[in-house]
Amino acid sequence: MVTESVFANSRQMVLQALRDDGRASFAQIAKKIGLARHQVAAIVQAAVAEDVLRLTVSISPDLLGLERFAYLQIAVSGPVQPVRDALVSMTESTFVADIAGHYSIDAEVRVGPDPHLRRTLDAILQGQVPFRGVLR
Prior knowledge:
The protein has about 140 residues and is α+β, with helices and mostly antiparallel strands.
């Protein structure tokens, strides 16, 4: 008979194993901590149902045709927030942050082939992203 403390300990070990390696299979976790695969599956399913654990999918950008990556430092004349908000709303943006120094914003974009990169940079520079700034 499984006591409540044994179950709580097993649950903690399963969740920690997932935290350590989110790609581990239930079978790998079961082997690592000495449980049956179905026990690991039950613990994970219960944690998801209780909203204690959220599973997400991460797809390689290359599989989506996003072959190019650009790191931008943007100097902004005027308020930074409208620029930040516009960059965040772009589907190409993967990271946007305020920074201190000469440049106001760091941004990373992921795009398809070179023409997509050019269109994205042109959109930023030519006012589709509403600011006056300098890209570096």
